[in-house]
Design a protein that fits this description.
The chain is globular. By secondary structure, the chain is an alpha/beta fold. Helix 4 packs parallel to helix 5. The chain is built from ten helices and nine strands.
Length: about 300
């Protein structure tokens, strides 16, 4: 979910002016059958296809029904609006964007610490994210509840984070926006983060007790930190509002690592899961060959 992850992805939005000419009416039927689950690529998944709006059009034509963009909040307003028009044209659902981005190199913010300033800055990010969500027609936005303070008892940090998430929910709830808290692994990618497992996210969301605060279950992170993926989903399902895929090791498309995504997708279909599944990973092969492999990977795990 972090900007650093996007180092593995291609960049380039293309001209927002050209995108602005896109009609809002839904486009033609895709050339490939629409996938049974709402898998959502992102900019860079199909980098060889051109601009951001070109990549969206190509993804739709391949049967993908969603899109996500962690960096959307940092884009100029005109680019956000162009993306929204492109998604509407192709009948695609906007997935998550990041509402509040941690400073990974400095291990900030510490939302559960003694200083209230990071909590106030976090709430300012949440207020700003409301307008971004409205421009994108986005229902979900990602939050990461900061880093641990080794000097403060964990129970006190938990209480403070529950409190600030309740205040954030008061901002988001009137607009029908859901903040999905993302647990991150500490073993490979994100040492010292506060939220580390789906179960811990479940405890926080339950305590906050708001429809605007739920859990993002990124199965790449959960596999590294805890494993036992389907059991974790089953136990915490009523607080999970969004999923992301990525295989382990390597954080590439399904089929490149140890996670049995075909079984997980069958479980999700049996649950009648209709939400978005973010394709939160890179491509294992560069260029168009890698894009073809990416499409094939999701066709392989797509439940019948």
């Amino acid at each position: 979910m972090t900007l650093s992850r996007r180092a593995i992805l291609a960049t380039g939005l293309g001209a927002a002016g050209a995108a602005a000419a896109l009609p809002v009416a839904q486009d033609k039927t895709p050339s490939a059958a629409r996938l049974a689950l709402n898998f959502a690529p992102h900019q860079g998944s199909f980098a060889s296809r051109g601009s951001l709006t070109d990549q969206i059009a190509f993804a739709a034509d391949q049967g993908f029904r969603g899109w996500e963009d962690n960096e959307a909040g940092k884009r100029p307003v005109a680019e956000q609006e162009a993306m929204a028009r492109a998604l509407a044209r192709h009948g695609m659902t906007m997935g998550v964007f990041v509402a509040s981005l941690p400073q990974w190199s400095t291990f900030q913010p510490v939302l559960g610490g003694e200083d209230d300033a990071p909590r106030q800055a976090f709430l300012a990010d949440i207020r700003a994210a409301v307008n971004v969500a409205k421009r994108l027609n986005a229902k979900w936005t990602t939050v990461v509840p900061g880093f641990l303070d080794p000097r403060v008892p964990i129970d006190m940090q938990t209480a403070r984070i529950i409190d600030v998430m309740r205040r954030a929910a008061d901002i988001m709830a009137p607009h029908g926006i859901v903040m999905v808290m993302e647990p991150l692994n500490t073993r490979t990618d994100h040492p010292r983060v506060f939220l580390q497992t789906i179960a811990q996210g479940y405890a926080l969301a339950t305590a906050v007790n708001s429809p605007s605060v739920k859990v993002l279950a990124d199965l790449y992170h959960e596999q590294i930190q805890s494993g036992n993926l389907i059991r974790a989903l089953e136990a915490c399902w009523d607080q999970i509002a969004y999923l992301q895929f990525g295989d382990n090791p390597g954080r590439k498309e399904p089929g490149t690592g140890e996670i049995n995504y075909a079984n997980i997708c069958a479980w999700l279909k049996a649950r009648s899961y209709a939400g978005v599944i973010g394709m939160e990973h890179g491509n294992s092969v560069a260029g168009r060959a890698g894009e073809d492999r990416l499409i094939a990977a999701y066709r392989t795990i797509n439940p019948a």
